[in-house]
Structures
1.
Amino acid sequence: MSLAAAAPATESRSASRWPAHRQRAFVFWAALVALLLSFCTVSIMTLVELRNDTWQRAANSARSLALAQSLEISRRFQIYDSVLRSIAQVAGDDAFTQIDWISQQAVLFDGALVDSALADIIVADATGRVRWSRRGGVGAETNISDTPYFQAQRAAIRNGLLISRPLVLHGRAPDMVVAISRGLETRDGSFDGLVTALVRLDLFEHIMTGATLGPNDVVNLVSEDGIFLARSPSLPGIVGRDVSSVPDASLFLSAPPEGFTSRSQFDHIQRIFSAVHLRDMPLLLSVGLSEDDIFASWNRRAQTIGLVLCLLAGMTLFLAFQIRREFRRRIETENTLRSSEEQYRLLADHSTDLIIRLDAEMNRRYVSPAALRFLGYEPDEMLDQNARTLIHSDDWPIVLRIADNARQAVGGTEDCYRLRRRDGSYIWVEGRYSYVPSDGGFIAVLRDITKRRMVEAKLAAAHAELTALVNTDPLTGLSNRRHFDEMLLDLAAKGDGAPVSLLMMDIDRFKLFNDTYGHPEGDRCLRAVAGAMRTAMESENAVPARIGGEEMALILPGRTLAQAQIVAERIRATVEALAIPHAGNETNGAIVTLSIGCAERPCQADVLEPLIGEADQMLYEAKRTGRNRVASRLILRKAQPLPAAPTDYPQREAVERFRALKLANGRDELDTLAKHVADLLNMPVGFISLYDRNEVELVGRHNITLATSSKDASFCRYAVQAQEPMVVADLSIDPRFAQNPFVTCDRGARFYAAAPMIDPRSGEAIGAVSVCHHQPYYLFGAEERAILTTFARMAMQGMD
């Protein structure tokens, strides 16, 4: 055949091969790009989900704080309204008009509320002339008919309580006040004047300043028509300003329950807001938390993950180019081998791959010249020797397996193994074996993949580093909350009924440690405690984690509660032995100590909530009963029953003063407070108990008919005697309450939480604000305890 005739055939074969080659290349690169995009997409979705979770938690915190603040402000307005009603009733009495003016002044105001926030209380007739003022000094020329609140009452007498815009008191210091007024009526229902209380606006700033906020957070009090009444922190000129026309004003005035984001027109800070309407008042209270503070940790994590993703993508692309280049070279080699034996030998002699011809006994019959470059041997030196002589002893079974697969014409005819070079070192090769039926031997094509193995090792190390970064707390080196939750979910998914114990740990008074020694020392303290945990752990399969702030946890799969207590005590003692100075923890030796709560449950689908809830409750019990200790059901069972402590003189005096100030006019206010706390915490029962001399009396009740109980049977005595809030997730499994008649009865109590009421004068606990439920409840955390404590303080308002 001539060269001219052979050329078209060659071109035809080449043309038929190119489309398949390009198709394989397209599939390869498309799959690689899809893999990288999917990995990036999953990472971005995870970051977005974390950001959304952070936003939602901030919105929930803002709403809880707004609700607590709004209840206190509403309570103040209700007190002032009751004073106005009382004065209006007295002023309309016929007998009142028969006495002299001085006696009238005394009757109206001598028994009125003594409150520094009340600038004045005024009673005016239908013409606007001020007839009586609590401050006295009323003259004939005193007339308020031109004031907006007088005109509003005269125009809408039957609208009840009205709240004015901010006003400046004339003739006195430049106090800003708001007028709270009620209209007076004649017997025929016509307008007969009004009674007005002038309330200083710094009252609301004082209430709002009590909220726990960051340096860039804000609390606003605005009327429903958009007039600013108060702001914390305060800004000059903000009170009385109309903001109804500024951007996003509609969001504030509509108070959506899900929260919203807005940029302040005053300090240009972007915040997450939650606003609530004050009950029966034309007022709104909003709490705004700074987005920069909330998302600071998320931003750092996003930057770190983005950098790791870029490095991983770069290494993947580099490896892909190397693999693709080697793949093309292998295809070219295999295509050439098919042409003929001569072309095969010619190609074998010049191939960059090492080609070896083996007989049925795996002896070498041909070795290509690449052996010198691969192994440092001349080809003739390797002939007539068994292949096993240069193969790593651990990898010989791999070679036998792929040779057997080639002989039987099944898959898996290529794999990676190690060959020894002349200098004694080993290289990695990828060997592909083809069976030769004529003599039962093999053709082995070996490619040096040592560099690829090195790249794969680096890629695996980068992947391991990324996994460790995602699952590890960077400060302590312990598992983070994400990995902690995943491990608990995995244990629950097993469902094999094996025991799993959980330790929840908290560094005692760590906030005082940070405030005293600074955050760098606080970080060192956290690392030292984490190191002590690792030292004291007895099991390698235990999972230590930092789940937030100074709170840490330890998962102990396969450990009973008794075994977990031993580990917990060892950790507590190890931390105590560090003797890290902590002046704020004087009651425990002025060193850093640890409180630990223990719980155990069998592995099953519904294990997470009761396991975490009981461990958290036991942690809180350890802190409540003195800190630097371990608490569990077993420890509580061994403890002696708490006796009903006698009431001493200061406590009895405080109880009697409470009766005189709070119960003299009935119990409606305390019943309302009990209902509010139960509604806010989603509990069916709320009550306020008074720890009296001989019994416990329920002085405020919601959905409970019980009026009194003995001290021995009462739940609140633990909170009263320890003067600390108390939470019991399941009364039926707590040894202190399991046999209590209020638990064992039909539809008995299963969940109970209480905060003690502390007398501000004597410091004595005289009772508790409590909620309970007929079902166990494990989600009552620090935020709910803070709300309960706030209501306990509200119950003691006016006792100082």
Note: The longest strand covers residues 426-436.
2.
Amino acid sequence: MRILKPIVIVLFLTVLSNVYSQKGYTEKDIQIIPKPKQLVIKPGKFQFSAATVFVVNGDSQKEIATVLIHKFETAAGFRPEISSKIPKKNYIQFKADPTLNKEAYIVDVNEKNITIMAKGNAGFIYALESIRQLLPEAIESKSMITSAKWEIPNVTITDEPRFQWRGLMLDLSRHFFDKNYVIETIDRLAMLKMNVLHLHLVDDQGWRIVIKKHPKLTEVGAWRVDQENAAWNARLVTNPDEKGTYGGFLTQEELKEIVKYAAAKNIEIIPEIEMPAHVSSAIAAYPELACFNQRIGVPSGGLWPITDIYCAGKETTFEFLQNVIDEVITIFPSKYIHIGGDEATKTNWEKCPNCQKRMKDEGLKDAHELQSYFVKRMEKYINSKGKKIIGWDEILEGGLAPDATVMSWRGTKGGTEAAKQGHDVIMSPESPCYFNFYQGPQNEEPLAFDAYNPLNKVYEFDPVVDTMTPEEAKHVLGGQANLWAEHIANPKASEYMIFPRLAALSEVLWSSKENRNWNNFTTRLPSLLKRYDYLGINYAKSAYLVMASAVADLDKKVINVTLKNEFQNPDIRYVLGDKNIDHQAIKYVNPIPFKETTILKASLFQNDKPVGKTFTDTIVFHKAVGHKVSYLTPYSESYKGDGPFGMVNTIRGSKNFHDGQWQAWLVNDMEIVIDLEKEQSIEKITIGTLESQGAGIYFPTQLKVLVSKDSINYKEVGKIMRPFAGNVNSELKEFKINFEKRDARFIKVIATNLRKSPRGDSSWLFVDEILVN
């Protein structure tokens, strides 16, 4: 037997080691969001190291390269160099290619170098964002990671966006967000190749931009009386003599800094200066801007209808707005100024002598045409300054201004009509582009606007409506997400509502329609979420939550529970009783039948492991299930629950009061009688209720239980008194009345309605189940 020489063994082991260390990349390893237009994987990889050189020309390319270099310095512990000279190997070269479109780029990677081709800065920025997502998620770490391999696969990426407008709106008025959060948001937009940040700087509840010629706009209009301990739509009207202490504003210098920072990321900042409505903050500062010089305070919360609007009959109104625009255009070099134009209740215009004179002088037939006059006049002035206007789709009413761009929020109808008229359009329909809507089951989510825009619904959106002709479709600039901030008081809450829904929208607006696939997107999403973990972004995990719905078969005394998730064909598993969700959990296939009180736990599984929060619920059977209920005061036709047996079907309502499980009474008290059909021993009654003061729903102020054997003679066995208390949150609550055990057949439950809220509005009483034990 021959013995191999040691040197041969060493060479053999070295070759073998190289073979096994050579990672073979596949399409599953490419997890870029938004998905590139075209990507080809080649054998091999490029290794980043301290010797890597970024080859750039000029300061702007150097600034772009520095963003990724800083990440290597922090996470990898080495700092690649920047040079204008090309080394023999191990370099990333920026090459200008004037034939490419503005935001297009090509990345070509091999073992020796990476070549990036783009027309200008936008393409180079987006190319590096793609390279960033090819690198391990640990590149986002804020501390050094020694275990990561700083390599990317050899690929060729050819990429460009489908739409030119890829935006996000931040509402700084309802709750103020400072410069630092806006800057952070710009970084996160760039990561997803978004290119517009729309700043909602003016609304009823706060004026957020310094106008030097009119200092009271921020001295008065930026501050409101602090009623943050009350629900948004339950807050009281502000006394104009009470000084506001809650709010804030951005200086012109801060805004210029934001604009400059955004421009370096290829993001255009669009200011919104509302008119003629949503301007109570301005009227609080300068009452003469209103029709009747009325003194008002800056509203602390919800306001409807919006009647305190700019007077369209006074010349001084337009002089004021021209002064504002003159200062705004010195701060924002953007092509557009957004003027709002939405939700103007024109009752004051219809009574105002100045507005009536304006209508007569201009030959306007109604208040809608007066609004059109208002918008057209301001558009003409803004156009004279080299800018174009954007308005919400209400600016269509009474005739659209000649060169206006419409932002369609009330569905896509307004945008479709504007495109037919030859106007440019930005699609931003409430469903699914309002990110202040819930994104998961309301019981598991922070307070939001009472509607539902989950991740998959955002991904299904397309800005081009099927009925559009090719010519009309050309007028669709793109789309935008809007985050209205009534319920969003701090940056972490804002992040939660934006991410990861913005990732879904980024792919809608960047990637071709043919190149998008929900299932494929969900396989790439976990990598992005790991990056968000490193970056400290408080993103929502709502898409992973299991949701349950139930149907009662009261004849058989069976409740059938259905489980689902946002993902197609999800791997949902469950356990019954007080067991842990683990590898022994049962795979969910069909609705689960329940015939007795049982705990249900369920979770989404990936790779045989539970992910996301575990769903837990207890299906409670009690003595009244399926028995007759008589309604001595009828429930509202708007909220009928499950009909006559809705109070005794074991199916509980959620914080989503539109879920079909609630019975409700407006102003009236609830008075019902449950017939157990025979005498039974009972000792506790539980009443399930909901409070959502912002929606006008209040807990009962008194609960009373009476029992009888003959339905004629009743005896009171328990009572709860509960005076009104402010509640900023939506809350489910069970009121329990215990009493000495006794036999009874009939149970009367009376719940007393608050009747009128502190604001003077009629109040609702909501009940989902009466449990008898």
Note: Confidence is low (pLDDT under 50) at residues 1-21.
3.
Amino acid sequence: MQWTGLNDLREKYLSFFESKDHTRMASASLVPQGDKSLLLINSGMAPLKKFFLGQATPPNKRVTTCQKCIRTPDIESVGKTARHGTYFEMLGNFSFGDYFKTEAIEWAWEFLTKTLAIPPEKLWITIFESDDEAEQIWEKNIGIPHDRIIRLGKKDNFWEHGSGPCGPCSEIHFDRGEAYGPFDSFEQASDCDRVIEIWNLVFSQFDSDGEGHYAEMKNKNIDTGMGLERLACVMQGVDNIFEVDTVQNIMKHISSIAGIEYKKDAKKDVSLRVITDHIRSTTFMVGDGILPSNEGRGYVLRRLLRRAARHGRLLGVKRPFLTEVCDTVIKENANAYPELAEKRDYIKKIISVEEEAFAKTIDKGTELLNQFTEKLTAEGGKVLSGDDAFKLSDTYGFPIDLTEEICEEKGFSVDRDRFTELAKEQRARAKADHAAKAGSSWADNSIKVDAPSTVFTGYTDFEANDAEVLAIYKNGIEVETAVEGDDVVIVLDVTPFYAESGGQVGDTGMLIKGANIASVDDTIKSEGHFLHIATVEQGSISKGDKVLAQIEKDRRMAIMRNHTTAHLLQHALRIVLGDHVHQAGQLVNEKACRFDFNHFSALTDEEIAKVEDIVNSEIMAAFPVTMQEMPIEEARKLGAMALFGEKYGNTVRVVTADKSVEFCGGTHISNSAQIGLFKIVSESSVAAGVRRIEAVTGKGVLELMNSFKDTIIRSAKALKLANINELPEKCASLALESKEKDKKLESLTQQIANSKTAALFDNAKEVGGIKIVSARMDGSTPDALRKLGDSVKDKSEAIIALFAGTLGEKGTFYCVCTKEAVAKGANAGSIVREIAAVTGGKGGGKPDGAMAGAGDIAKIDEAMTKFEDIVSATIKK
């Protein structure tokens, strides 16, 4: 048995099974493909489930993999022990109806005892209690002594998950020796971690109906799993995964940054383990395209990153550092996962952005949480209220799990039930607000039309002659006739009107029968029927009428220009920003193109300019835009981009605009030159990891330019400039002049305030050996109050000063305590908090200086009168 590095172990395993006619498959992405039952891939078998279930054909009946895995049920335990981790690699060999127990057992034994030279006497075997077949193979074929084969029950040695394929397991265990405890029995040695499981062989031979009935399967399968890091522990003679070579190298880098050593301080060891594990997980997750967010796998990533960043601070690392450690993670895994090195800049950018954002959050949140826990301590409480926890989360973005973790460290718990209640109320309010803003259509989508599906002709035609009125609905009730003034829903057998879908708005236009006219204000779709939201403008429209259905051509052309532009925009963004860019939502109408996409930071002016240049170059190239229907597999071979989360049928519509190839059911122009011009109006954030670009095309660009020109001319007139070219210099001159005036005003205000402050000490009161002074400074900004207070803070005697001021309708309190006053028990944070509470305001801060906002400014004088009593109650007697 020879020391073997983790990377060598991985290669030895995969090569061994290749020699047994297995096909080596690359690790699947951590993001499950087509499996909604999993948030993240958590086992070697998970990506291969489709082969076991017969949903897809494997490349070979024998397969071997080393699969990246994430398991998160015990995130809180990671770091506290050396056993828990979130990221690991699972070695596996699989048979899809080919070999079975004999080969699986014999090859496992051969690999362990021959290839790795593990002494046979160190290995123990467990089998399912009724699996005589496995026992005979272990005894007769392998030669394992009968007393080294342990029979265990269904809980330990039978793999089953609901209904479907299942079967008994046989596990191979390694005895780590007397250093880990005595060996009184197998169960006792397992409990004390002297004996650890290293390989699980699952024999899928039954089909369960989920009700206790097991039918023998005709085609039996093999599914094995061996943790790579755990195997490395055995081969390297170390206690846990954090001491394995590749993992230890990551920890050493963290230790170097923090200036500490592992196993010198138990508390710091916890932080080292947390960071080491979490940076491994996050590097691989980001490498597989996962972005930080507030839900799903994105939230798992965000939680791991923030937990790692916080433990860096606990080690004294105040600057962002995780991207540095990320380099080591990539280096240690580059041979097996070269894509990490290829995506290095992208991975580091996302981690850097998230870590820097959290640095701002954690400082504000920690300060407020400390105030809450200080108050709890003073009151003898043990539970942080759900209201306070929710405030931390809602106002400061401080994660609830982090609040709970910090509180637990300090001996407090959190009222999670109340927090959850408040979070639900907030979501309900947000949902109601969204509904109110979106409005509600009187044209109810619940209308059930008893007629054949509408035939849509709008891809090629702008009007349809002799379209038959199949149904008319007024207030949700079917009617025979609609007369002038009626708001109705009209269903036609054939229509050129595009129904709102895929981010493209519905068409507007007219339905005409001679002198009878209905104007269509919108078009939506319901179960195959196009619903024309219309108002009868003249005469009447009846069921059975044949009408001319005519869309508003100029509007549709503008919409088509913007829709095709959305495709060109996505293509350009992927060129400039990277292949991680995918559509996250869009809205195209006649006025603009709004495009949401996955990206982790704001676009620079240079990036925006590049995107505009690419799109405009494609417009000027005047290439054809084609639309084809084809089998979905053929579309995928062309590299057509699909919308994430969208379900497609066997036949799809593919829109090709030069190098942009996308699945799309919308309407488009026929040549890029028809777009005319393209201009980005704005770029902003709409959610974590999602950016939004709003742009205009064609006449919209001309309107935008004219609007800019009008603004410039009006601005020049307001400044009495004869030449608009002088505008930039004039604006700069005015800004400088204003800034100088502000400085002079601030200086004069400070001089007046200082003179008032000097007079205060002439009549200062004394409480417990401390001078106390207070004054109102209305018209002063919070910053001016702070400067005024800080001028007192440096005095050499014991002084507590309270300043209050109003500016408009807002009021502010600022309290300072000199060093000598703090030594006597004074605490500015506690004092200003109680003062502000009199007015219904809130605030706090450090013992030597703290600020609070006033609630009702009419009560400021009342609060000031309580200053002496509050000081008396807080300082040491």
Note: Residues 344-379 form the longest helix (36 residues).
